[in-house]
Write the structure tokens for this entry.
Amino acid sequence: MPQTKSPKDFVAAATRLFAARGYHGASIANIAAELNLTKQALLHHFVSKDALYERVLSGVAERMMLLLMDVQEDAETPEKRLEAFFDNYLEQALAGASDSRLMLRELLDDRQQDGAAERWFLRPVLQELVAMVQDVRTWRVAPPDQALAAICDLLGAISYFAMAQPVLPRLPGQDGVDEAFREQIQKRVRDLCSHGPQS
């Protein structure tokens, strides 16, 4: 007897496919096929592709907010919080988590669904990261747009590196590249904190 699929299973499958193919590359039919369901069965739980994608992004935002809350509880200074967040984000990305791929795709894809940034699920995450950067002494007088640019630069670099993981083993001299990249990110975060917007 086949196992009954739950909405949690639907979201997990959609997360994998949206991360691998992007919003435009993953269809309801693809997601349903991965679950051995009909499109109608999937649409019974999620009325549209947009509704399912929003549920996926909501999950990404929740997990990223948990990462942020963890570092705020564990690290004593704004600088240490930023270092810990980006280190943890990199660890998750290298472990194969779909969230970093979805974050990069969401930053790059221009879906223009409704144009309402206020409803964008990842907005609170980016706002919280901007606030963390502006808590750093060297960033206190910097405008939020500069802090956001620095955050997008780091998130993009980490996400791009994680997405390149399947290719890197085929390149010469790749031994130790993960550790070298980790050290580069740590240095970039330290430079960002110590030099401010001029880093």
The CA atoms of residues 22 and 106 lie 8 Å apart. The mean pLDDT is 86. The radius of gyration is 19 Å. The domain at 59-198 is CATH 1.10.357 (Tetracycline Repressor; domain 2).
